[in-house]
């Protein structure tokens, strides 16, 4: 199954093909690139001291601030929330073959680079040829094996199915051949030389400093006039400073988890908005399946019947999530993928059920303490880096819930990030809370929790519990490489049953993208009723939002 395209998105795609206009924006915007207030986009990451605009470098200023996304555009936008649909962008049309090993794109006509040169299919071919030739490091594991122009189209061929990596392919920043062919090393060049910072995007560089970066509207943008004439990017030292800036109006748009957001931000101004955009991922309790007490599926199942996911949402996440109760581990956005057997098969907080599971497996209670079949008290630690306030709160909730309900002593462990990261990779932990690999479908949960491919040189980058079952591994590979929806659905059924039976991890709640913004000057923002994009300005969909914004009347 392709990433979903709703009827509205399908109609929008058709309109794009017919008119060559940007989704939701274009000539309908009335800002004419000159009037209107600037928008200040903020992050809490501290100052960035080195100037670099290279969109392929994760630690460049352009990537960390996020402004590279409004200069360099992708072929299409894959919505990480809402309908999970795909909207063509620099491409007028994108089409995958049945097994997702080949992508055909029709580059948009009438597009110019910001230096006035025409954007053509040759630029798309050149961009992906950088990976094919080895000149650009393939950090996203795209696995391009061939790229060629075919009439008005460009055909990309890959070494394996990209069904679970459509976003990574389609979000690749497209760069101008006439500039980049002379760049000796695209892996390191900061693009600071005169004339190098050229894109097709809605904004162009105006000023760069370590305090802030300013961009102005591109007067020749293919999507038409933009309501917002200027973007300012700033970075504050922490969330507290960022919150102060948002409340005072020094910052207009950000993504951050802000504790007590109603009192600290929303109550300050009726124009202040907070958008929670659910994704297929989840905040998940990973358990070390290689050691006590988590080497016993019965203990894991008992925890799944005890942990209060609604408390996670209401207290730890302060409402910024949705609980995940289904035994398959799949959240609300993926309900259509749940097989009939599990449609209504949900966990709940049922301590009696949990105790029955434990008793049947040979557990007992001594002086209120849960004791395993070997006569040892059940206890473990849950590890989350210090300062991750939402998950730190969840640690305390888990400790309280499990001791009260089941007599399990849970120790709260809050190391620095480095220690936590090393422990999860090396298997030196009892339990941790972590996110999932983002694939836009059910595969993300199951590869993250049950796929041995993530264990390399005895270090884990996912599947931290080190689950390894040949039948499950085969189903994961089938899901990722299937050439039909039926084949993929068959594999998904195997994965859902294995997850429900083995409880290799416990998803707590949807891991959302967050966005804080004010509507005092502009309307057209995404909303709970219209999640056409996430409200997070660091996501690829920021260009779509900026083409939709219009001055507030």
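^ structure tokens above, recovered residues below v
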């Amino acid at each position: 199954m392709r990433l979903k395209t709703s009827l509205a998105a399908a109609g929008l795609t058709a309109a794009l093909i017919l008119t060559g206009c940007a989704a939701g924006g274009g000539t309908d915007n009335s800002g004419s690139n000159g009037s209107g207030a600037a928008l200040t986009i903020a992050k809490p990451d501290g100052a960035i001291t080195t100037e670099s605009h290279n969109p392929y470098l994760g630690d460049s200023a352009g990537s960390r601030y996020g402004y590279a996304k409004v200069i360099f555009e992708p072929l299409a936008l894959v919505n990480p929330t809402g309908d999970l649909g795909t909207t063509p962008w620099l491409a007028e049309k994108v089409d995958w073959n049945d097994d997702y090993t080949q992508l055909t794109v029709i580059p948009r006509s009438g597009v110019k680079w910001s230096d006035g040169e025409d954007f053509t299919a040759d630029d798309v071919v050149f961009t992906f040829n950088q990976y094919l030739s080895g000149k650009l490091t393939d950090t996203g594991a795209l696995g391009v094996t061939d790229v060629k122009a075919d009439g008005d189209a460009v055909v990309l061929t890959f070494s394996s199915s990209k069904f679970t990596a459509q976003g990574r392919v389609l979000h690749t920043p497209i760069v101008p051949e006439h500039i980049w062919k002379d760049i000796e090393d695209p892996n390191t060049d900061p693009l600071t030389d005169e004339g190098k910072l050229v894109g097709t995007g809605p904004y162009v560089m105006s000023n760069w400093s370590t305090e802030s970066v300013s961009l102005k509207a591109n007067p020749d943008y293919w999507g038409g006039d933009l309501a917002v004439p200027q973007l300012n990017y700033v970075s504050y030292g922490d969330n507290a400073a960022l919150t102060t800036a948002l409340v005072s109006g020094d910052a207009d748009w950000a993504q951050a988890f802000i504790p007590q957001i109603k009192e600290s931000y929303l109550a300050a101004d009726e124009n202040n908005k907070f958008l929670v955009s659910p994704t297929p991922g989840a905040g998940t309790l990973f358990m070390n399946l290689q050691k006590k007490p988590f080497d016993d599926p019965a203990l894991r199942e008992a925890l799944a019947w005890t942990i209060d996911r609604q408390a996670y949402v209401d207290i730890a996440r302060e409402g910024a999530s949705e609980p995940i109760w289904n035994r398959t581990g799949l959240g609300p956005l993926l309900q259509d993928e749940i097989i009939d057997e599990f449609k209504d098969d949900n966990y709940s907080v049922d301590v009696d059920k949990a105790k029955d599971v434990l008793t049947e497996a040979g557990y007992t209670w001594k002086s209120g303490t849960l004791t395993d079949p070997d006569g040892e008290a059940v206890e473990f630690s849950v590890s989350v880096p210090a300062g991750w306030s939402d998950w730190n709160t969840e640690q305390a909730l888990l400790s309280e819930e499990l001791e009260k309900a089941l007599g399990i002593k849970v120790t709260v462990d809050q190391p620095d990030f480095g220690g936590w990261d090393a422990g999860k990779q090396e298997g030196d932990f009892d339990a941790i809370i972590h996110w999932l690999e983002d694939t836009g479908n059910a595969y993300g949960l199951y590869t993250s929790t049950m796929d041995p491919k993530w264990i390399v040189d005895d270090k884990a980058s996912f599947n931290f519990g080190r689950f390894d079952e040949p039948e499950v591994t085969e189903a994961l590979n089938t899901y990722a490489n299937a050439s039909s929806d039926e084949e993929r659905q068959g594999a998904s059924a195997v994965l859902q049953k294995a997850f429900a039976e083995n409880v290799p991890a416990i998803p707590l709640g949807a891991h959302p993208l967050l966005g804080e913004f004010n509507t005092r000057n502009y309307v057209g923002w995404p909303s709970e009723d219209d999640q056409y994009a996430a409200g997070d300005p660091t996501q690829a969909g920021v260009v779509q939002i900026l083409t939709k914004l219009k001055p507030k009347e």
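The longest helix spans residues 389-406.
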